[in-house]
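User: I'll paste a sequence; please echo it back and then give the predicted structure.

Assistant: Echoing your sequence first, then the prediction.
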Amino acid sequence: MHSIVVALLFVLCLLSTAIQAHPSTSAPDSTSNTLLSSCLLSKGIKNFSYQSNSPSSPFNKQLTFSIQNLRYSLPSTPKPAIIIFPLSKYQLQQAILCLRQRSLTIRVRSGGHSYEGLSYTTSYRTPFGLIDLSNLNLVQVDPTSATAWFESGATLGEIYYNVAAKSNGTLGFTAGSCATVGSGGHISGGGFGLLSRKYGLAADNILDVIFIDPNGRILNRSMMDEDVFWALRGGGGGSWGVVYAWKLQLVPVPNRVTWFTISHSGPIKLLANLVHKWQFVAPNLPKEFYLSTDISGSEDGNGSVSFTGLYLGSKWSAFSILTDRYPELMISESNLEEMSWIDSVVQAAGLNSVSDLRNRSTNSKNFFKAKSDYVQTPISKEGLIGAMKILAKEPSAYIICDPYGGAMARIGSKDLPFPHRAGNLFSIQYLIDWTKAEEGMADRYIAWLRDFYAYMGSFVSNNPRAAYVNYLDLDLGTNNWTTSTSSTVDDAKHARLWGDAYFLWNYDRLVRAKTKIDPENVFNNEQSIPPLPE
């Protein structure tokens, strides 16, 4: 069984001297580099390096260390002209202004987990600069008010670690399972996780922000338009400016929780019955229960299904609920383990110890392609058998199904840009991965995944076929810009190709928010929200 692919990593905090860029189509000339260096150094920013073609250069080590999807680490991938590592809110503000002064497109990377590499690369025909937030990872917890402030470069693991340590294990944070994911990007797309059926998304629990807009203004919630504050919490990253820090409402967790994993393998028809029943059970369990399933195939034509469970309560209560509602799972008391909530976070992340949560380089890297769907009506047994037969022909592929319901159904679909609430039973994440040795087969693997996605079309949401913005998928469409600042009356209409899939009826409000905060389209990417023309 494959592990969940979502992860990595930390950009090394190097001091950098200004290394002149090797001439290339994606780097400014030496005069521009000198002017940019002068701007940065005059503001006290010393941690930066220029593009270099040498694989052993500080630049390439810094760039690749935080790239999780190795599809975007190839020599042919467009690279930033410069990487800047701000050390403070002021340096972040000045880095934005210096890059704008030199007319460089801006990319901002929190943890490097963008599925399509949009936080650190681009297909535009203009030079771009990368602001890496990995040094901005301070986490401050106030147990009395059950709140925390954290900088956008903090990983989920760093936040989990600090919240548990400073609250003596009484408070938690609702967000994803991968410890090395950057909080800034994760929250910008919503942030689903194992506590979401109880407490909603990470973005649902954001109380305030410190935000730097395209003109360098530093704003908090009270100083910005409410549409903009709304957009920052789930409207996708890379469109608005840069959130320097977030204020989070922490959530209570019990002293002991129950964790388990259980796997079944065998004939596809038998496993399809098990998955079919899961669709009715998992979204309707008590909101304290999270029960996901991963499905894959094997070369012998059989299937494999694994279940991951977290229950905010005792293992006896969990056992009673499961044996009553899902006896087909064949769970036994020995499968269930009670532990602290923070230990369950370690288990979900696939780590060995609580201290590993602070390590930004704990996950392995690979090449992968992903897509996503939402299911609103249970898939028939015949449909599941068909899907599992297709999976059995490609052992490199797998799907992950996350249950909704609970708080995900209670929170309104317009409360935040993330609209996938009541009416959704579960989400599907489709993944296929490969190694460097199989690099020549990448096109075949991606084509296979697209065909599988096409097969699933009749079983999932439609008009539009919905997708999760944190599982970025450029197959849905991209902006037509050849330069980053193009803006025409048709841009917002064209962007509906993916905007409606990710945000449904909330897309138009996002366009209005973009027009208010970034009418010149300074912050953009291939699937960013375009502004309306003046």
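Residues 1-26 have pLDDT under 50 and may be disordered. The domain at 257-339+365-459 is CATH 3.40.462.20 (Vanillyl-alcohol Oxidase; Chain A, domain 3).
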